[in-house]
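Ticket #4471: structure output looks truncated?

Reporter: J.K.
Steps to reproduce: submitted the chain below (279 residues) through the standard prediction queue, then opened the result file.
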Amino acid sequence: MYDINLSFIKNSELNTSNPNLESSYNKFYKDKVIKDLEKIKLDKIECDNCNINLSDETLLDERNIIEANSKGLIGKHFCLIDSKDLEIEKDTMILVKIPEGVEIAIVTEENNVAKFKRQKYGLVGEELPKVLRKLNSDDFKKYEANINDEKTAKTFFLKSINEHKLEMKLVNLHYQFDRKKLYFYYTADGRIDFRKLVKELANEFKTRIELRQIGVRDEAKLIGGIGSCGREYCCTSFISSFKKVTTQIAHDQNLSSFLAKHSGPCGKLKCCLSFEVDS
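Returned output as attached by the reporter:
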């Protein structure tokens, strides 16, 4: 495993109550790791105990790519910056072009970090959503209007499912930025006949309506929160796709007697139980 020198951390600063200390050190540490990984790549050295073969040029996508998070269809996704004149930093709000329309996203990682993340995932050369531009003042006004209309849509939806006596739980809803679609995410124990409901929603909001049934794990991912470990839910912070967590996995770790204790807020076994299965 490649060693990272952490001598830049100062004990005197750690004893202070500076609220920005953690974020500044996180950025400092991340920049240092990326710089060292770049050095390994240039020197054609392999990281023997890593999942990444840093000497393999074919696994490295050299396009200008950032990672962004969107409330809409793409979720957390890699996006392509096609323009050389467009410089985008972390936490910038951007407009992203997808086949279904245009969505708003927030940049979570810049090019260097995204590049090595993609190498770990084995991603290279595939078609990506394109970044159109940073949000301007008019875009912000439209974004705020969409948020206000989402509140109205939520009230109307809850009233409608009550009138139609539909056993559904609304988890989230989302207006696409260009307002071509209005998405409703819900959970239910079984299949729901919501054809009348969709017609009613389309007549009310004058746009295409899409109702998406999601699972309880997806619900936890959308809502987010703090787990019993004191950290943000794994599904919210970094898990992009769910793995099947079975009671056999708990049994192999001698945890089968405490399944209730090792269940997450979604009621399913915690995703973290699968992290050490291979070892």
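Triage note (M.O.): checked the attachment and the full token line is present. The chain has four domains: 1-55, 59-135, 140-214, 218-274.
Status: closed, working as intended.
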